[in-house]
Design goal:
Blueprint: E1 4-8, H1 13-21, E2 30-35, H2 41-49, E3 53-55, H3 64-77, E4 82-85, H4 94-99, E5 104-108, H5 120-127, E6 131-138, E7 148-155, H6 162-185, E8 189-192, E9 195-198
Parallel strand pairs: 1-2, 1-4, 2-3, 4-5
Antiparallel strand pairs: 5-6, 6-7, 8-9
Helix pairs in contact: 1-2, 1-6
This protein binds 5-O-phosphono-beta-D-ribofuranosylamine.
Length: 207
């Protein structure tokens, strides 16, 4: 199975769900947390789970390229083959994309292409959509634009706030993202040119 790095910037509930999911393996593929914020709660989670982490902040580098080269150095040291973005609040640039073609996935709290960007849940509430959801996709140079692997809808109720909708979406994320990552790491989901190829039907256990 490929070695995985998880990139995260904040709370880290997805990071923890992925790390715990892979504990079922004798040797977990989750080798590294890359975090771009020194105060992020996800760092505490990594410490508690015994997963190595590095904090690499953009402000410490004069250019995005040098910032990403510093990240790459850590990825190489840890022999990382695959990256999952789990609440990583930065666009991945050309420097990292070139080294990991078709090997980076992201989770987003909307049914893309609706509501890309940082405020997807608030925007879904403001717009008044009745259905939102979760999207997992391969990462390209755009903002939440890469080829879609998996989507699941989530109802939006008239009484919902951004907080209640985020919670309903988060519960789905924690269930689904580890399973999709597992299929990516074992070669059952691949990015072929620009289309997603699943070697077998993409069966996810729905809770
Ligand atoms: C998730 O909703 C994810 O979809 C989005 O950022 C949030 C991260 O949450 N990209 P957490 O840090 O994993 O708790």
């Amino acid at each position: 199975m490929l070695n995985l790095a998880i990139f995260a910037s904040g709370n880290g509930s997805n990071f923890q769900a992925i790390a715990e999911y892979f504990n079922k393996y004798p040797s977990s593929p989750v080798k590294l947390l890359v975090c771009d914020r020194s105060q992020a709660h996800v760092i505490r989670r990594a410490e508690d789970l015994g997963i190595p982490h590095v904090v690499i902040e953009r402000k410490d580098y004069p250019s995005k390229e040098l910032f990403e080269l510093a990240i790459l150095q850590h990825l190489e040291q840890a022999n990382i083959h695959f990256i999952a973005l789990a609440g990583y609040m930065r666009l991945i640039g050309a420097t990292i994309l070139k080294q990991y073609p078709g090997k980076i996935v992201n989770i987003h709290p909307s049914l893309l292409p609706a509501f890309p960007g940082k405020h997807a849940v608030c925007q879904a509430i403001s717009y008044g959509v009745k259905i939102s959801g979760v999207t997992i996709h391969f990462v390209d140079e755009g903002m939440d634009t890469g080829p879609i692997i998996y989507q699941k809808s989530v109802p939006v109720y008239p009484t919902d706030t951004a907080v209640s909708l985020q919670a309903r979406i988060n519960a789905i994320e924690l269930d689904i993202f580890p399973q999709v990552i597992e299929k990516c790491l074992s070669g059952q989901i691949l990015l072929n040119e620009t289309s997603v190829e699943a070697w077998e039907e993409l069966i996810i256990c729905e809770s």
